[in-house]
Each structure stands twice: as structure tokens, then as C-alpha cells.
Amino acid sequence: MQRLGADPFSLAAATGTSATGTSPTATDSGRLALQTVVADLDRELARCLVLASDRAAPGDERLAAAILLARAVPTCERAADLLAEWLVPQSAPETQSHVIDVLARSGADRVPAVLAAAWPGLGPAVRTRAVDAWLSRAGWAGDLVSHLETRLIRSGDISLQQRDRLLRQPDADLVERAGKVLTGSASPARQEMVARYKGSLEGVGNPSAGREVYTRVCANCHRRGDLGRELGPNLATVQEHAPARLLANILDPNADIQPGYSGYTCVLGTGEVVTGLLATETGGAVTLKLADGSLRSIARSEIEEFSTAGRSFMPEGVEESVTVDQMRDLLAFLRGGLD
Ligand code: HEC
After folding, report:
1. Three-class secondary structure of residue 220 per DSSP
2. What's the CA dihedral at 11, 13, 15, 19 to 10 degrees?
3. Measuring from atom 9 of ligand 1, which residue has the nearest CA?
4. 0.90 cut: is pTM over it?
5. pLDDT band at 26, cuts 50/70/90?
6. pLDDT single digits (tens) 131-174
7. Which of these, 64, 173, 209, 248, has the minimum number of CB atoms within 10 Å of its CB?
């Protein structure tokens, strides 16, 4: 496919320039040349369509053909569906990001649907690109807000800068809806639980009793001083947090997920299911940090499905192992000095 690299639009534009000449013969020959280019272009697009749809053809040639199709109005919708094939965990993140940029530029109506279908399997870096794509057209931003409302997309997936862009959309109704979903992310049942534990914010807790609660319930995932394992964030930093905020973090972890701590599920070709935090991602492999703290590297070719439900890797329901009095002690321990 030697000619795939040729840009049909710059070709057409170049021919168009020669057609603006003043002499009538120049114009005529310009028109003729333009007709030839249009015919060539149609033929090229038809060829690309065949190639891109041919699953037996080499992947990089198919991708190049699909990218070219995305640039032409008559074929961009079809191209959006074809390009969806590369928005899968088996593709390197750079390829996925590139495909998303191509989709965004194509402006095809199918793009928001293609992004939403791919969303659960996208890694964090590619997600940022996808949100940028949704935000790149006023008509698509509404689709983004709908997915925030249904919680397909969590507010934690939207960067501060993207929030700002969303809240500056021209449509006032949309901005109001966006404002609601971006601020009120806590679930009502969980908020009720936080209210039930309000008693733990009053009175004086016993830090050494709290240390025992910590060792029993939290140390499996959190390090603090010389205690525990660092799967979740190191809790030395929460010392300064207001007790009410800490309580909400503990009882309603999904309200405010620290970036990089969503749980991922990977289904392998062998049927094995691996769950963990996404430690690193390269073109060829995904590395998950498992609940026991070990790392597991999985080749992209082994992956059947890869997704995150956008939920925190910290489980809800900690209260089942911690009474209100123990919570008071735990808060006193977390807010006390590291010894
Ligand atoms: C199964 C692992 C797991 C257990 C058990 C667990 N956590 Fe977490 N925790 C996490 C992960 C992962 C995060 C980061 C994701 C998030 O913010 O929700 C987190 C986040 C937090 C945060 C927010 C940190 C910040 O920097 O804002 C606090 C506070 C916290 N946990 C406290 C606790 C306490 C206290 C316990 C014990 C009662 C506990 N966790 C039990 C995994 C765990």
C-alpha cells in the first residue's frame, strides 16, 4: 500500500490551486485534473474500505486504511466502527490514544458511542484522551454528562482541567447537570453510614486501641509508619486530614477515589480472572498489583478482556469490622504522630 501515506485532502487542495489560474485553458485542465483526482480518491477510499474490513490483512495496514477512511466525510461513520477494533486492551496504549485522536478529528456521529463501548477496557492514560475527545465537540459533551449520570464514567476519571472545560460549555442546562454529577458523587446509602458513625467524631479516642484496629482491618492494604503493606496510599499523609473527611474516606471509598487506585479486572484467554491495581502499562503488557501486594505481568496477547468498574480498590463495608467506639480510636490513631 504505497499510496496510503498520500493525503487525499492536500492532493485535492493542490489541484484546486492550479484550477484558479486566469487562463481558460489552465482552468479547463485544472478541472480535468481535479475530476481525475476525485475519481482516484473514490477508488482509493473503496480500496481502503476493502482492506480495512479484511480481517486477514496485516493489522498495521488495516489500521492505516481505517485512519484514511476516517478523514473522508462519506466513509467516516464506517471508519469509526472499524477503528473501534483497536480500542481494546490487546492494542498498545499509544495506538489506542492515536485512534482516539483520529476519531475525535473525524467528527463522525458514531464517535461518542464507540468511545462509550470501549470505555470499561481503557487504561487511565487513554481515558484522559477519550474524555478530551468527548469534550472536543459541543454535541458530544452532553453524551459525556449522560455517562457521568449513569456512572459508566466516574467523576474521578475527569481531570480538574477537563472539569473546567465541561463547566464552560455553552449549554447552560448541560453545565447544571455536569455540576450536579461532578460534586455529588457519594452514594446515599454510604452517606447514611457516615451519618451513623458521626458519634466517632465526638469524644477522645484511644490511639493505642486504634492501632490494634488498624493492624486488624487496614494494615493489609495501607502502610503507616512501620505498620502494614503499601497497596493503597500510605496513610502517613492523612494525619492532617479533618476527622470528618477521614471518616468519609473510610466508609465511602468510592465517593472520592485517589487517582490510580481503581480496581482492574483482567480475564485471560485461559479463563483465569486477575484483579488488582494497574501498576504499569506498556505496549506489550499490563502489570497488575494484586491484593497480596505481588506484581503480575500479563502479555496483551494473553488478555481476553480488561476492564475497570471505576470502583475503588478499597472495599466498602469496613464498618462491619469496626464499631463506632473503635472508629473513634482508629481516627485518633490515624491523626496521632508517627512513632
Ligand atoms: C483491600 C484493601 C484496603 C483495605 C482493607 C483498606 N483500604 Fe483504605 N484504601 C485502599 C485503596 C486502594 C485506596 C485508594 C483508593 C481510594 O481513594 O478509594 C484507599 C484509600 C483510603 C483513604 C484515602 C487516602 C487519601 O490519601 O485520601 C483512607 C483515609 C483509607 N483508605 C483508610 C483506610 C482505613 C482506616 C482502613 C481500615 C479501616 C482501610 N483504609 C482499609 C485500600 C484499602
Report:
1. coil
2. 170
3. 314
4. no
5. low
6. 999 988 878 999 999 999 998 998 778 877 788 788 878 788 98
7. 173
Q: 262-312: same fold as 196-255+316-335?
A: no
327, 329, 332, 338 alpha-carbon torsion, rounded to 10° = -110
C-alpha cell belonging to residue 26 = 489552465
Residue found under cell 493503597: 232
Strand partners, 298: 286
Q: What separation in Å is there between the alpha carbon of 54 and the centre of ligand 1? A: 48
SS3 state of residue 268? strand
Architecture of domain 196-255+316-335: Orthogonal Bundle (1.10)
**Per CATH, is 262-312 categorized as 2.30.30.100?**
yes
Mutate to test the pocket of ligand 1, among 212, 308, 314, 335 (most ligand atoms within 8 A of CB): 314
Domain boundaries, the chain: 1-86, 89-94+104-185, 196-255+316-335, 262-312
Task: Provide the grid cell at 189.
Answer: 446509602
Q: Are 55 and 78 in contact (CB under 8 A)?
A: no
Q: Are 285 and 299 in contact (CB under 8 A)?
A: yes
Output the CA 151–ligand 1 centroid distance in Å: 21
pLDDT single digits (tens) 169-209: 878 898 889 888 886 555 677 888 889 999 999 999 999 99
* 162 within 8 A of 131, measured Cβ to Cβ: yes
Bridge partners for 281 per DSSP: 286
Inter-residue contact 287 to 297 (CB < 8 Å): yes
Q: What type of residue is 20? A: T
Nearest 10 degrees: Cα torsion 82, 162, 120, 218: 160
Task: Annotate 93-125 with b (16+ C-beta within 10 A) or e (fewer).
Answer: bebbbbbbebbbebebebbbebbbebbbbbbee
